[in-house]
Amino acid sequence: MTSPASAAPLRVLTGITPSGTPHLGNYVGAIRPAVAASRTPGIESFFFLADLHSLIKAHDPARTQRSTLEIAASWLAAGLDPRRVTFYRQSDIPEIPELTWLLTCVTGKGLLNRAHAYKAALDKNAAAGEEPDAGVTMGLFMYPVLMAADILLFKAHRVPVGRDQVQHLEMARNIAASFNHIYGEHLVLPEAAIDDNVATLPGLDGRKMSKSYGNTIALFGPREQLRKQIMGIVTDSRAPGQAKDAESAAIFQLYRAFAMPDETAQFKRALAQGMAWGEAKEQVFERIDREISPLRARYEYLMTHPQEVETAFIAGAQKARALAAPLMRALRHAVGLRPLTELADTESAARTAAPDGPLPVFKQYREADGRFYFKLTDAQGRALLQSRGFDSPREAGQAVKRLQTEGAAALPALAAQLDSAACQSLDIAGAALDRLKQALAA
Ligand code: TRP
Question: What CATH number labels 343-441?
Answer without folding.
Answer: 3.30.160.160
